[in-house]
Design brief:
Strand content: under 5%
Number of helices: 9
Oligomer: single chain
Distance between the termini: 23 Å
Strand order of the largest sheet: 1-2
Radius of gyration: 19 Å
Length: 235
Amino acid sequence: MDGTRVWRVIRTFEARALIAALLVAGGLWALLSLGGEVSEGETDAFDRKIMLALRTAGHPHEAVGPAWLGEALRDVTALGGTTFAVLATALAATGLAFHGLRRRAVLLICVVAGAQACDELLKALYRRDRPDFALAGAYTYAQSFPSGHSTASAALWLTLAMIASSFEAQLGRKLFWFAAALLVIAGVGASRVYLGVHWPTDVLAGWMLGACCALLGWLAWRRLRGGEPAGPPLT
């Protein structure tokens, strides 16, 4: 089978759905495996090493780098906050509904809400304490694992990228939306660690959970989109 035929097979719904399902299964397995290691304290040394590398020696609540960096990352971290996620989801869903794309709107709402619910469930299950490295003024509540901001940002921005790319015909433009989403997601996750409000493995778990929710949403939409257009073919 030559490369062209392989690509055609991969582009079929069944093949892509299978690949996505395998990725979801792998992501969930990795998430639960990481949760087990966190519960047993296997990741403590790794987490603490990274946190200390971002702190001034002898001052656990003082981050390395210029003062403006901390302030800038406070703004970045808000892109994964509950308030922003709710507002962005509501506005995007309303815009989609105005254009008759109600299934996409429902998909976005379900993915973001589902990710938030799963995050709360895992927090209650693992009950991991927050790190004692928070910068002054950084407010924390609830448990630490997984990172809610990382979960919400991955679920929200990957789903928005998926929806935006569905309107594009050129592969380069599709990749642009996903690249932009990944940039925001990485920024939110990094900000949580730099601000000292989450362990690195909390962020990694949040990314896994949010990505799995977005992939599940994609699978559901591809199966249930009904009369809505799938988007133009690639050119």
